[in-house]
Hints:
199 residues; 4-stranded antiparallel sheet; 4 helices
Amino acid sequence: MGSSALRHQDVRQLDGEPALALALALAPPRLWGYLLDATLDGFAEGFARPHDGKVSTRIHQGLRVAQNTLRARIDGLLDRRGADVALLALAREGDVLHLLVAGGLRAYVFRQRSLRRLGTYDATDEGLLKAEPIWCAEPVEPGDLVFAGASPLFTEQALTRVREACLADRQLDPGKVASLLNSDESVVRGDAVIAFRVS
Length: 199
């Protein structure tokens, strides 16, 4: 497992595809990297399998393979208590952004002067093996700023900071969103954040 065991979260961009996945390990630290790799490798494998051309199908395939791969890894452990991984996946198809959430992760979009959460779902401490996955498809427009991360990052104060920064700078660098969200003393600094502007 090596140094990968210290990764509590990880982000994977699928090669050649407008798709991103964010995984959050729900397990003792010694298992973090082991379970993150299983989940993200499984999602990428499923996403790449033969499909009908629809992004929703590809995400569904990614979810199923990620679940099966993660379950197989956990079944091989002596101590399986509480081991799971939360997963969020975003993939664009034309002017529609497809979102999958299983566990305590969230996604938001800032458009013009409005900041809103994508999808309607409650945060949960469970992950791929226990949480009911939530799916949604949201229309997006060029210039929209999309960002996602672990639920604890999105305090009212953090979201206000992001909104104010977006209003002050209509071309705000998406990379700055992570530092704005990670600046609360109540959260673990350095949490992974997906942030990108729709082109």
